[in-house]
Amino acid sequence: MPEFQVLATPEDVARAAADQIVAALDGGARTLVLAGGNTPKRCYELLAGAEVRWGRVTVLFVLLGAGEDGHTASLFPGHPEVQATGFAVGVRNAPKPPPDRVSLTLPALQGARRVIVLATGAGKADAVARARRGEVPSGMIAGALWLLDRAAAGQ
Predict the structure, then answer these.
(1) Is residue 144 domain-shared with residue 70, that is, in the same domain?
(2) What is the sign, positive or negative, of the torsion defined by CA atoms of 138, 142, 146, 152?
(3) I need a labelling partner for 52 at 20 to 30 A (CA). Which of 6, 14, 19, 28 fits?
(4) pLDDT score, position 28
(5) pLDDT of 21
C-alpha cells in the first residue's frame, strides 16, 4: 500500500520532496530519475540550492540536444548560469519557454562518464559551427560525442 502524506501547501510538498531527494543522494543513491512538467518545478528549484554532497553522485550518461542558439540543457549563450560551478543551477528568464528552469552545470555535465549531444536539421548548422569553435554552451562539454545529420553539419 502506498504511503500518503498530506501537507499544508504546495511549498511544503516541494520542500518535503527535495528533502527526500537530498537524503537519498547523501545516502549514496546511484540512480535518480526525475519527472518533467510544472508539478515538480519548485522542488527542483529547492534542490538547486540544497546542500548536497554532489561529489558522491555519479552521472553515468547524459543525452542532450542543442538548440538553434547553441544552448544545451538549460544553459543559454550569454547567460550567467553558463559560469556556475556547482552541480545544478536555477535558471531564471530563459529565452525559451519555460522561463524558469533547473539545469546541470557545465562542470556536472563534464563530469559525466558519457555525454551525447544530438543535432538535426539545417536550422542547427550555425549552432553546430559555433559549438565546434567552443563559442556556445553546447560546445563547451569536453569529451562529448556529437551525433549530427548532414544538414546540421552544414553539408
Answers:
(1) yes
(2) positive
(3) 6
(4) 66
(5) 82
**7 and 13 in contact (C-beta within 8 Å)?**
yes
Peptide bond between residue 98 and the one before it cis (omega within 30 degrees of 0): yes
Do 81 and 27 sit in the same domain of this protein?
A: no
Which range marks the domain in which residue 145 is found?
A: 59-155
Residues 65 and 121 in one domain: yes
Question: What is the C-alpha to C-alpha distance for residues 136 and 50, in angstroms, rounded to an integer?
Answer: 28
Dist CA 93 CA 5 (whole Å): 33
Whether residues 127 and 74 fall in one domain:
yes
Q: Which three cell numbers stand for residue 52?
A: 548536497
| Co-location of 54 and 64 in the same domain | no
State the pLDDT at residue 147: 85
* Per-residue pLDDT at 126: 96
The single residue listed with the C-alpha cell 553539419 is 153
pLDDT at 67: 93
Taking 70 as the pLDDT cut, the residues of the chain under it are: 1-3, 28-37, 54
Cell output for 1: 500500500
Given a contact cutoff of 8 angstroms between Cβ atoms, the answer to whether 128 and 152 are in contact is yes
